[in-house]
TrEMBL record:
Highest taxon, organism lineage: Bacteria
GO molecular function, one term: methyltransferase activity
Organism phylogeny: Bacteria, Pseudomonadati, Pseudomonadota, Gammaproteobacteria, Pseudomonadales
Keyword NAD among record annotations: no
Species: Pseudomonas alkylphenolica
Keywords, comma-separated and alphabetical: Lipid metabolism, Methyltransferase, S-adenosyl-L-methionine, Transferase
CDD domains in UniProt: AdoMet_MTases (cd02440)
Domain called DUF7884: residue spans: 11-86
InterPro entries the UniProt entry points to: CFA/CMAS, CfaB-like, CMAS, DUF7884, SAM-dependent_MTases_sf
Family: Belongs to the CFA/CMAS family.
Protein name: Methyltransferase domain-containing protein
GO biological process, alphabetically ordered: lipid biosynthetic process; methylation
C-alpha cells in the first residue's frame, strides 16, 4: 500500500499523519501533531504538489478533514507546501472590474453572513479590523479600544469636529469618536446587516444626535469639503487597483482644507500587488473576499499623493494584526458548536481557515497593515499639525 503514496511524500519528515479513505495510515514524520484524513482518492496525487489554495479548497468542499489545533494545521500544511513547492511560480493576477453593483455584492457576501456569528468572536464593539496592543497582556477588548483611541488621536479629533467614517462596519469607531471625543460622525457602509445593528447600537447609547449611519458608496461621498476629518478602516482593500485614484480623489474632495485623512488597511508584500503564500491569496479571493485586491504601500501612497493629500505619518501594525487574528481564531475555535448553528458548515470551514491562516500570514510577513495619515494643505501649503508626535502619547 505504501507504494501508492507519491515518492516525494515518503521522503518528508513532518509531524503529519495521512489517513486514507480505506483506513490505511502513514506517518510522514515522528510524533504527528496534525492528521489529514483523505476522503477523495484523487487527492493523493494532488498532495504531491500541495498549494495552500488547493488544500484549503479540499477542506472547504469536504474532500478532506483536518485533525489538530487549527494553528498547527496551518503551520504544518504550510511546511508541507513549502517542502514540495520550493520553486513556486506565481502569475500576476487578473484584475477585477469594480463597479457599484460588483462591490455591493462582494461586501454583502462577506459582511452580511450573520451578525450573531460575528458577535461570537469579535469584541463587544464588533471592531472587525486590526487592534492595537500596547502591552503583551492587553485583552482583545482593550486592544480594540486602544485602536479607536489611537486613530482618533492621530486625527487630532476635537469636540465638534465632523468626521466621515468610510466603511464604518457596525459603527464601533463612529460611536467611540462621538462618545469619547465629542465628534459629530457620518458613518457609511454597503452592508445592510451591519447598518441595521449599527443603528440599533447608536440608539442604545443615545448617540442619535451625534452619529448617523447610512448605506453609501464611496463614489457618492459629498465633494464639498464639509468634513473636518476622514477615517477609512479596512476599506481600500475592497476598492481595486484600478479605482484607487478615484477613491483617493473622493476622500480629498470630502475633507476641508487643513483637514486630516486616515487610511488604515492591509497592504501587499510585493510592489505589483501579486499574492503570496503558495496560493493562500487565491484562497482568500475565491472564498473570503471576492474581488479584493491588496495594494502595496507605495501604490496606495502614490494614489493618495496624486489626489492632492500630503502624507505626514505612516505606521505598520503587521504584528498587531497577527495577534488580533489569533484572538479571533481562538475565540471562534472555542465557539464552534454555537457557530455551527448560525452559518452553513462550508462557511464555518472557510472562516476557520481564514482567521488562523491570516494570523499566520501576518506573522510570516506575507502581508502587512499600514495606517497612513494625510493632510489636505491650505492653499499656501501650511497645515495645523504639531511639530512632533508627542501629543499622541500623552
Amino acid at each position: 500500500m505504501l507504494a501508492q503514496l507519491p515518492p516525494v511524500l515518503q521522503s518528508l519528515r513532518l509531524p503529519l499523519r495521512l489517513k486514507l479513505w480505506d483506513g490505511h495510515e502513514f506517518d510522514l514524520g515522528p510524533k504527528p501533531q496534525v492528521t489529514i484524513l483523505v476522503k477523495d482518492p484523487q487527492l493523493i496525487t494532488q498532495l504531491a504538489h500541495p498549494s495552500l489554495d488547493e488544500l484549503g479548497a479540499a477542506f472547504v468542499e469536504g474532500k478532506l478533514e483536518l485533525e489538530g489545533t487549527i494553528g498547527e494545521v496551518i503551520r504544518i500544511c504550510d511546511e508541507l507546501s513549502e517542502a514540495l513547492l520550493k520553486h513556486e511560480v506565481v502569475d500576476l493576477p487578473v484584475r477585477s472590474e469594480h463597479d457599484k453593483e460588483t462591490d455591493a455584492a462582494a461586501i454583502s457576501y462577506h459582511y452580511d453572513l450573520s451578525n450573531d456569528f460575528y458577535q461570537l468572536w469579535l469584541d463587544r464593539d464588533m471592531a472587525y479590523s486590526c487592534a492595537y496592543f500596547k502591552t503583551e497582556q492587553d485583552t482583545l477588548e482593550q486592544a480594540q479600544q486602544n485602536k479607536f483611541d489611537h486613530l482618533c488621536r492621530k486625527l487630532r479629533l476635537q469636540k465638534g469636529d465632523y468626521l466621515l467614517d468610510v466603511g464604518c462596519g457596525w459603527g464601533g469607531l463612529s460611536r467611540f469618536a462621538a462618545r469619547e471625543f465629542g465628534a459629530k460622525v457620518l458613518g457609511i457602509t454597503l452592508s445592510k446587516e451591519q447598518l441595521k445593528l449599527g443603528r440599533q447600537r447608536v440608539k442604545d447609547e443615545g448617540l442619535q444626535n451625534q452619529v448617523k449611519l447610512q448605506i453609501l458608496d464611496y463614489r457618492d461621498i459629498p465633494q464639498d469639503g464639509r468634513f473636518d476629518k476622514v477615517v477609512s478602516v479596512g476599506m481600500f482593500e475592497h476598492v481595486g487597483h484600478a479605482n484607487l485614484a478615484l477613491y483617493s480623489e473622493r476622500l480629498f474632495g470630502a475633507v476641508r482644507e487643513g483637514g486630516l485623512v486616515m487610511n488604515h488597511g492591509i497592504t501587499a508584500k510585493h510592489i505589483d500587488g501579486r499574492p503570496v503564500g503558495r496560493g493562500a491569496g487565491s484562497f482568500i479571493g475565491r472564498y473570503v473576499f471576492p474581488h479584493g485586491e491588496l495594494p502595496h504601500l507605495s501604490m496606495i501612497a502614490a494614489s493618495i499623493s496624486h489626489a492632492g493629500l500630503e502624507i505626514v505619518d505612516v505606521e505598520s501594525l503587521r504584528l498587531h494584526y497577527a495577534r488580533t487574528l489569533k484572538h479571533w481564531s481562538d475565540r471562534l475555535e472555542n465557539q464552534l458548536q454555537a457557530a455551527s448553528t448560525l452559518v452553513p458548515e462550508k462557511a464555518l470551514r472557510i472562516w476557520r481557515l481564514y482567521l488562523a491562516g491570516c494570523s499566520y500570514a501576518f506573522a510570516k510577513g506575507w502581508i502587512n497593515l499600514h495606517q497612513i495619515l494625510a493632510v489636505k494643505p491650505y492653499a499656501d501649503g501650511h497645515h495645523d499639525l504639531p511639530l512632533t508626535r508627542e501629543d499622541l502619547y500623552r
